[in-house]
């Protein structure tokens, strides 16, 4: 175990405060509208960008807030507690898009792609999943064939692309040498305004409905040599590194959802009367409150641990998986119990409890399912593959 210090700095608390203010003043009041309509909340996302929340760990020279992973966790929790869909968009821009380019991109790539996203001028996306390959990313069919001039011709489909319908730039993973399996995957920077790029229909989803998701397709799309991200054949390694960081974001999102459900429940059990007393006085309800509190605290501390390790430049793959698994399953359990405690009101669209319940589910699925997190953790612990 490492000595971990969670004495938050003034800067970390400041960005948490900025996130909380925007979450409460702008996002929470509009969450129900966006959930019902499925519209993309562009104005709110631009506001988050203008306040440094779309590039929290991005250095100031690339238009970001220049903060650390712990600050990112604190801000993400606040946004997710107001609305999970907004935090999904924020997570993709921060974790999946900016992280990979900062770690592997050239100076020119950082200036062009990271700055636009970190400042909130454009939306970014991350394209790894395909219709036939989710958890098994090496079964990739999207092809990028190298030409004599160093450019690549891309053909293929990607599915479940968060922010796909609105993204200007996308980090794409495609097979450049199928004979090498995972070592034959390369990463590319895609401009969606270019010929050969097509967006499919926006997916109708159970939860995070304001976060637009679609299938994308490439037909003889030309990638220039300077749009290769990192070295040829290093795409899988880049993707896995990015997903490690992304899991900190999704764990934070799950904490925010869980916290919102918990706080609503806490208020409800104090006020709601049954059999002549507040329902919070009944032992069965109290047991659920205690378990909610434990799961929430455990998730937060484990997520801060992973973020702190990342900020220290230490390995954090297992810690990120532990955090994501604990936080996502905790959020789902808390939201489930919250609906149960609220009874009929929990099941009603009149209250946000059913939205928390729907939103919590996705945290157990994307950026590595709970099953994949268990594999990552167990393989690390046993040394067996």
From TrEMBL:
The keyword Oxidoreductase applies. Its cofactor is FAD. It comes from the Bacteria. It catalyses: 3-sulfinopropanoyl-CoA + H2O = propanoyl-CoA + sulfite + H(+). The keyword Oxidoreductase applies. Pfam families: Acyl-CoA_dh_1 (PF00441), Acyl-CoA_dh_M (PF02770), Acyl-CoA_dh_N (PF02771). Keywords: FAD, Flavoprotein, Oxidoreductase. Its EC number is 1.3.8.11, 3.13.1.4. Residues 9-120 form the Acyl-CoA dehydrogenase/oxidase N-terminal domain. One of its GO terms (molecular function) is flavin adenine dinucleotide binding. Residues 125-220 form the Acyl-CoA oxidase/dehydrogenase middle domain. Residues 233-380 form the Acyl-CoA dehydrogenase/oxidase C-terminal domain. SUPFAM superfamilies: Acyl-CoA dehydrogenase C-terminal domain-like (SSF47203), Acyl-CoA dehydrogenase NM domain-like (SSF56645). Belongs to the acyl-CoA dehydrogenase family. This is 3-sulfinopropanoyl-CoA desulfinase.
